[in-house]
Every structure is written in C-alpha cells, then in structure tokens.
C-alpha cells in the first residue's frame, strides 16, 4: 500500500479503519462498556510505561469503534492516533492470524478505506 497524493490523511483514515476492524473482531457485537473498561485497565496495567495514554479516551475510542461514534468527537487527533496504534499493537499479535487471514484482514480494511482514496 502507498499513500495517495493527499499524504497522511488517507493513511490516518486507513489506520482508523484497521483499528475499528480489530476492535470489532476482538470484542464482538455484545461488548459492554464494562468489557471495554476491563480491557483498558488490563492493558494499561501490563504496560505501565504507557501511562501517557489516557484511559478514558482509550475507552471512548474503543466504544466509538463498537458503535458509539460520538464518544470519539472530543478526542484530540494526536491522542487518537497513539491510542489506535497502541491497541493495534496489542490486539493484532494476540489474534494469531495466519498469513492468509492477515491478507484477508488487510484487504477488508483497504476496501473499507477506499473512500479515502488509498493508492
């Protein structure tokens, strides 16, 4: 994948799309706010060096990906990107995707991100 002329805008949208897919795959359709809070608490406890990532914003961004998009509105873009990358770095290795499954996951993300014109 290469970023199109619009530079980082499309790439950031792609990261957001990958984040939403990974979160949806991990939590599933019946996740509750308590499930998300427990996940955030557990990940932060196991990565204490990352206390710079605000727990409430992490919860809100995950819940936004799970169907409450208004929760992401007040989150600064720089915090959003950091949270997305951290959560992806946590979830993707633990998903134990085969090469074929990873290819399928990326293809789905590219298809969903297509409106942001990745090329």
Question: In words, what does this structure look like?
Answer:
The protein is an all-alpha fold. The protein has one domain. 66% of the residues lie in helices and 0% in strands. It contains 5 helices and no strands. It has helices spanning 8-27, 33-46, 55-65, 77-95, 99-113. Helix 1 packs across helix 4, helix 1 (8-27) packs across helix 5 (99-113) and helix 2 (33-46) crosses helix 3 (55-65). The longest helix is centred in the first third of the chain and has 20 residues, at 8-27. Mean pLDDT is 85; it is low at 1-5.
- Number of separate helices: 5
Taken together, the total number of domains comes to 1
Low-confidence stretches at least 5 residues in length (pLDDT < 50)?
A: 1-5
Work out the strand percent: under 5%
User: Whole-Å distance between the termini?
Assistant: 7 Å
What's the total count of β strands? 0
How does the SSE layout of this entry go?
Blueprint lengths: L7 H20 L5 H14 L8 H11 L11 H19 L3 H15 L6
Helix pairs in contact: 1-4, 1-5, 2-3
Concise summary:
This protein is an all-alpha fold. The chain has 5 helices and no strands.
Descriptors for this entry?
119 residues; mainly alpha; 5 helices; globular; disordered N terminus
């Amino acid at each position: 994948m290469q970023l199109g002329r619009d530079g980082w805008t499309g790439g950031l949208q792609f990261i957001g799309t990958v984040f939403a897919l990974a979160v949806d795959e991990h939590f599933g359709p019946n996740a509750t706010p308590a499930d998300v809070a427990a996940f955030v608490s557990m990940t932060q406890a196991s990565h204490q060096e990352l206390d710079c990532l605000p727990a409430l914003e992490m919860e809100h961004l995950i819940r936004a990906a799970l169907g409450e998009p208004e929760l992401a509105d007040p989150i600064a873009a720089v915090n959003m990107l950091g949270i997305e990358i951290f959560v992806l770095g946590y979830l993707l290795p633990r998903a134990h995707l085969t090469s074929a499954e990873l290819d399928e996951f990326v293809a789905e993300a590219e298809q969903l991100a297509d409106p942001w014109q990745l090329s």
